[in-house]
Structure formats: C-alpha cells, structure tokens
C-alpha cells in the first residue's frame, strides 16, 4: 500500500529534519517507520529519500544551509540508503535477481570524474526491487576498468550516471567504448539535460530522467545490443575546428591569465586572503571547464545556463552577478581567434547583463 502524497510529505519533512541535524539514527528510524506505516520501498526511495536529497541541493544553492550542513545531510541520506538496501524487503528482491530468477543483469556506474554517486545508488536499489541483478560499481569509474568488467560479466545493459555536465566528453568516450563491447547503454543524471538532449547527441541507446523511469523503460527488456562491427559515426563534426581541444588543453594557462587580469582590474583582490584567492581560481576554472564542454557539444545555452545558475548562487550570497563579467571579458581576450568560443562568451555576457545598470565593478569573491 502506498501512502497518499500528503503523507509522503510528512515523512520527507521528518527525514529532512534528521538529516540536517546530522542524526543518522533518527533518520534511519524515520525511514523504517515509513515502511511500517505502509509506504512501499520504491516509493520511499523515490518520493521521500531522493526528494530530501534534491532538497539538500536546492537549500544549499539558496544559501539557506551551509556547506557543512549540505555534506552532513548527504552523508546521513547515504546511511539511510544503505540501511534500506539491507532491509529484508530489499534483500529478498536482490537474492531473487542474483539467483537467476530475475530479469537479467545490469551494471550501474558513474562516469570517470563523477563523484555524485547518490542517484546511481538509488537506481541500483530500484532496479533490484524490480528483479534485476545489479553490479553497482560506484562513483568515478575509469573507463578502462568499466570495459574490463563488461568483458568479464557480459551484462544485458550498462547504466551510466553523471550529474555534472563537464563530465560529458568523458561520458561520450565511455558510451562508445561500452557499445563496442556489444553492451547497450542507458544514461541518466542532470548532466544529460532535462530532456536527455545530450544523451541523444552522444549516441546513448536510451535515456531516463530518474530511477523509476529507467526501471519502467527496462521493464520491456534492455535496449537491443549494438552491432560489434558497426562503423563509428562522426556525429560531432564541429570538433574539427579544434576549439574544444585548445580550451581543454589550455585550461590551467587560461585560468592563470584570467586571475592575473582580475588582479589588475579589481584592486580589492590585493587584500584577498589565500582562501578567497583559491575560491576565485576555482570559480574561474569552472567557467573554463563549462566553456570547453559547451564547445564539445556546440551548445551556447549550456554555457549561459551555467553562468545563470552561478549568478543565482552569487545573488543568494549577496554578491552581484555582474562580478562574473570581468572574467568573461578576460577569457574572451585570450580566445579572439576562436569564433565559437567568442560567440558563446558574448551570449553569456548579454544574459548576465540583462537590465542591470552600469556601475563600478565590485569585488569578485567575498566568501
């Protein structure tokens, strides 16, 4: 029996309170009490636990919880997920899948460089509940090790997860390598876009926005196995201009150049602490990484969307979004010979400027 929606909200609120307080025992008690009250395991995973974890990200972005609270709540939610995975309901389903009585075998892993493993773990537990045998490889799996596992186990499908868009060039390589073993690839996670547009662009066999949808899609069986002798298709011809390659390989030099320019344009940086300088350099590196990814995908909206998200983060912390403009200008000065890059930078600048009146540039970093 599934509790009504308002009942799920009550359980989610209780779990949220325990997670933010860092009380993993209370959080596990909430989850177990929800099961005892009639919430089925999959609903608990998707509409309570996953919903609370999504709220953690939103509350941090809005500056309503600290980084420490965000990390604490995530750690507690991971402990709750582990406890639920060992609950008799989940264990019975897992044993059925491993016994050969289930639907088949699926490997679940995060793209190399992707540390956000919570969505992949939710997918693993939902698939096990649905009768699949699942090999969960966890966060940041190097592609060669992933391929070795596929050769050894010959699963019915590969499920790859990524939350950060800058991992998409690596995801493309992983998708292609998995398919070369004859294994169909299902992808998911925020990195692939809300409508899965990057999954299609990068040639994945299937995409799902969440674990439940992925399980529903696989209920009819995994996607067809790709032909081992199929020819690779150059589906990203824009990469021939080498703009992505230049930005990706020149990242550290571009960051240093922008940092040097910021110190000349923003006198307040002379009094920055080592911590403030480090955070500023990290921010600039993120800008360069997202520009490179946008060049790889040939999607200006990916870059401007990242800048808009960053602007929202800064606004919530009392920092005007216009503080991003000097970095974009300095980066553009280094990329004048690259028309796609300069076009993306110009588009992002216009998105940030909006209708805000011109004023003296404030300090870049205040945290």
Write a structural description.
By secondary structure, the protein is α/β, with parallel strands linked by helices. It has 3 domains: 1-86, Orthogonal Bundle (Methyltransferase, Methionine Synthase (B12-binding Domains), Chain A, domain 1); 101-235, Cobalamin-binding domain (Rossmann fold), CATH 3.40.50; 239-353, Phycocyanins (Globin-like, Orthogonal Bundle), CATH 1.10.490.20. The chain is 59% helix and 7% strand. A 5-stranded parallel β-sheet has the order 2-1-3-4-5, with helices on both faces. Helix 3 packs antiparallel against helix 4. It is globular and about 65 Å long.
Q: Helix and strand layout, with pairings?
A:
Blueprint: H1 5-21, H2 24-36, H3 41-61, H4 67-85, H5 88-98, E1 104-110, H6 118-129, E2 132-138, H7 143-153, E3 157-161, H8 168-180, E4 185-188, H9 197-201, E5 206-207, H10 211-218, H11 243-249, H12 251-265, H13 274-297, H14 300-316, H15 325-333, H16 339-353
Parallel strand pairs: 1-2, 1-3, 3-4, 4-5
Helix pairs in contact: 1-2, 1-3, 1-4, 2-4, 3-4, 3-6, 6-10, 7-8, 11-13, 12-13, 12-15, 13-14, 13-16, 14-16, 15-16
């Amino acid at each position: 029996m599934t509790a009504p929606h308002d009942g799920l909200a009550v359980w989610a609120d209780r779990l949220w309170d325990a997670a933010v307080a860092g009380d993993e025992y209370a959080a596990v008690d909430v989850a177990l009490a929800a099961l005892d009250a009639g919430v089925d395991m999959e609903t608990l995973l998707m509409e309570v636990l996953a919903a609370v974890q999504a709220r953690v990200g939103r509350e941090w972005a809005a500056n309503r919880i600290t980084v420490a609270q965000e990390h604490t709540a995530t750690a507690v939610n991971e402990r709750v997920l582990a406890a639920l995975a060992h609950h008799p309901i989940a264990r019975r389903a897992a044993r059925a899948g491993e016994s050969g009585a289930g639907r088949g075998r699926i490997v679940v892993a995060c793209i190399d460089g992707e540390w956000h493993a919570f969505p992949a773990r939710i997918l693993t537990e939902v698939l096990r509940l649905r009768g699949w045998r699942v090999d969960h490889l966890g966060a940041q799996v190097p592609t060669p090790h992933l391929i070795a596992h596929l050769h050894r186990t010959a699963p019915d499908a590969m499920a790859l997860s990524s939350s950060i868009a800058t991992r998409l060039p690596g995801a493309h390589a992983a998708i292609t390598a998995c398919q070369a073993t004859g294994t169909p690839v299902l992808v998911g996670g925020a990195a692939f876009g809300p409508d899965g547009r990057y999954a299609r662009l990068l040639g994945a066999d299937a995409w799902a926005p969440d674990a439940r949808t992925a399980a529903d899609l696989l209920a009819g069986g995994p996607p067809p196995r790709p032909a081992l002798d199929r020819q690779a298709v150059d589906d990203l011809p824009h990469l021939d201009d080498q703009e992505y390659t230049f930005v990706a390989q020149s990242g550290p030099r571009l960051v240093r150049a922008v940092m040097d320019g910021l110190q000349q344009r923003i006198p307040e940086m002379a009094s920055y602490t080592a911590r403030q300088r480090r955070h500023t350099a990290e921010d600039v590196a993120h800008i360069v990484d997202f520009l490179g990814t946008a060049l790889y995908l040939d999607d200006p909206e990916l870059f401007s969307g990242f800048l808009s998200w960053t602007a929202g983060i800064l606004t919530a912390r009392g920092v005007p979004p216009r503080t991003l403009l000097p970095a974009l200008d300095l980066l553009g000065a280094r990329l004048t010979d690259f028309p796609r890059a300069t076009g993306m930078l110009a588009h992002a600048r216009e998105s940030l400027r909006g209708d805000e009146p011109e004023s003296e540039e404030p300090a870049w970093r205040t945290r």
